[in-house]
Amino acid sequence: MRKENLEFKFTELSDVYNKDKKIDTSIVLDIRSVNKEPYSLSPAFDSDIERYCWVPEKNNTQLNLDFFVKDGTKIYVDNELLDEKSYKVFSKDSPKQYIFRFENNDNIATYTLATLPINFPPLNINVANSSLVSEGNIFTSVFIVPKVVHWPLIIKDVIRYFPELKKYYIKYLYQNIMTRIKIPKVVKYQTERKLSKSRKYLPYIMMLDKFGVPIWYKMAGIGFSAFRPYKNGYYYGAVSNYPQFAIGLGKTVLLDKSFNITGFQKINEEDIFTELHEFQYLDDDTIIQIGSKSHKYDNQNVDSGIISILNQKNGTNFIWNSIDHVSPDSSIVPMKEWGMKSNDYFHMNAVRILSDGNYLASARHTQTIMKIDKLSGEIIWHMGKGSLNNFKFINDPYNGFSHQHAPEELDNKNILIWDNGIGSIENGSRVCEYKIDENKLTATLVWSKEFKDLQANVAGNCYPIDGNNFIAAFGSQGYIQEFNKDGSNLLSIDPGGLIYQVMKTKVN
Questions:
Q1: Was domain 3-10+23-116 assigned CATH 1.25.40?
Q2: In the chain, domain spans
């Protein structure tokens, strides 16, 4: 496989046209393809959308483009004049970026097409309302179980990021394979049902433009979750071992602004495994990580949840272990649910620093979020459908959330949360915003959006882009949607696989 299939950054669109001409997108009426979705021009042509992409279905396929333009319009592809109003793009040339320039007298319109590797998940981008889609780049990752033919690449990726583990990679590879075999059927069904069995997919991390077209991507054979910007560049979580589907021995890989590896980050505490659900590098140099630690409890092995908050400048070194505060008896998940030897009773999947300085954590397997005192580590309150809940829910038809992910404190101090809805919402998940009264211990549902037929059995998040727009990842449903507060769908990306979380933000 060629190197550019593994790692690729598309060139910037600049100085490709005569600046004496004025931009007039009305000279291009339409660009169409006869190819069937999702292996067609994506998204569908919109004169206000500048960039498009194409994922080839096979090694020997082509994208047939037909151009509909005003009379007298000249069409250029990479500065070469076309004789016809059509063009063929071949999969054998992927990945590549094409620049289409349309000139009519003193008017010009320019569009680009990025062709992607054959093993790339088909993005299937749909823009419902281009004028309302928010500004910013989309950061996400798509996890797909690789075919056997790709395992050599995966092994190389593990060794690259974890050179100290070379002698263990066969063991970890075995654990990885066995875990994938034993994951719940509903998860396997959700992550694979959109994928063609004839194609050889690979997992990727990616940065997309505002409409979902890739700007940069990298094959990521090792496990990963968040891919986000921070003040010095970009980062994503990486693990090489899966003793519990999504928990294991890992570390975060830090990338600079050119996407080169600059270092790694892990929890430097004895017997604590850094895991992939959370990593944040805040503007004040605070580093938030989570991990797990093995214990004996009631004659069985259990894995607790660990919070690590470190800031060497101000002297913060907060280590919190769930086993000291929450009994494994509070877990709703049977020990053998994931087919492994240890009980992931807590399954911490998020930590946030609240505006009052205390910590907000989410534990999927106790079905609660909790507020933790920043000094003592004591739990101030629990909230959710679990047995530990301290709150009365108001105006909530489901009386709380279940198997939740990604709580966020909003500017108005309300809590936004991704409700997977398992065992609560019939065949659906939702986004919830709660107003919290800590004195009366009430949680009032002030806004929510429910997604029918899109229940994510695992993973997912909802990220507030601005005061009105949100973007959500649907976990094991392999789906991303941007929507506004009135519930209108603005943008959807539907690659399949598993999308742990998504973020959209402007990058300086």
A1: no
A2: 3-10+23-116
506 burial via Cβ count (<10 Å: 0-12, 13-18, 19+): exposed
Could you tell me the two tokens for 393? Answer: 């829910």
* Distance in angstroms (rounded) separating the CA atoms of residues 44 and 211: 11
d(CA 391, CA 210): 38
85-131: per-residue pLDDT in tens?
Answer: 999 999 998 889 999 999 999 899 999 999 999 889 999 999 999 99
DSSP string, 303-355: EEEEEEEEETTTTEEEEEEGGGTS-GGG--S-TTTTSSSSB--S-EEEEEE-T
Helix axes 169-182, 151-161, angle to 10 degrees: 120
Sheet holding 273-281, edge to edge: 273-281, 287-297, 300-311, 316-321
**Cα 287 to Cα 265: distance, rounded to the nearest angstrom:** 9
Alpha helix ranges (H) inside 347-469: none
For residue 469, CA distances in Å to 66, 197, 483 come to: 34, 35, 6
Helices (runs of H) and strands (runs of E) counted in the chain: 4, 36
Contact present, 468 and 461 (Cβ < 8 Å): no
Radius of gyration of the chain (CA): 24
Is pTM beyond 0.85? Reply is yes
| C-alpha to C-alpha distance for 33 and 55, rounded to whole angstroms | 13
Q: Is 197 exposed, middle or buried (0-12, 13-18, 19+ CB in 10 A)?
A: exposed
Query: What tens digit of pLDDT does each residue of 33-85 get?
Result: 989 888 999 999 999 999 999 999 988 899 999 999 999 999 999 989 999 99
Backbone conformation region of residue 174, classed left if phi is above 0, alpha if psi is from -120 to 50, else beta: alpha
